[in-house]
Design goal:
The chain is an alpha/beta fold and 109 residues long. It has helices at residues 30-43, 63-71, 85-95, and strands at 12-16, 19-24, 51-55, 73-78, 98-101. The protein is built from 3 helices and 5 strands; from the N terminus they run ββαβαβαβ. The protein has a 5-stranded mixed β-sheet with strand order 2-1-3-4-5, covered by helices on one side. The chain starts with 11 loop residues before the first strand and ends in an 8-residue tail after the last strand. 37% of the residues are buried.
């Protein structure tokens, strides 16, 4: 979350063991930001298996959760507050992802 706080809008940050693995930012959608973060990590030959994903704002749809789970994430930290939080939580449960809601949004433009 410390890194996501300083990344521009629609920030998705994969991390593990105190290391930032991939960052997706400035995209029109959160799912595209997740795909960019996954791509950047894989381009650097970094494994996302067992990683944690931080998002600067809520996940508006389940598709972002589907992307980060397929990439290897095991947990997500996000502010919550979407009208579709129930759908997003259900997606996390389906993938076996832990999810933490902070209630704090860091969305930067």
């Amino acid at each position: 979350m410390r890194v996501a706080k300083y990344v521009k809008s629609n920030a998705i940050v994969f991390s593990k063991d105190g290391r930032t693995l991939g960052i997706g930012a400035g995209q029109m959608s959160r799912v595209d930001a997740a795909r960019v973060a996954e791509f950047k990590a894989k381009e650097a030959r970094l494994s996302l298996a067992g990683s944690v994903v931080a998002s600067d704002a809520f996940f508006p749809f389940r598709d972002g959760i589907d992307v980060v789970a397929r990439a290897g994430a095991k947990a997500v930290i996000q502010p919550g507050g979407s009208l579709r939080d129930d759908e997003v939580i259900a997606a996390a449960d389906e993938h076996g992802l832990a999810m933490v809601f902070t209630g704090v949004r860091h969305f930067r433009h």
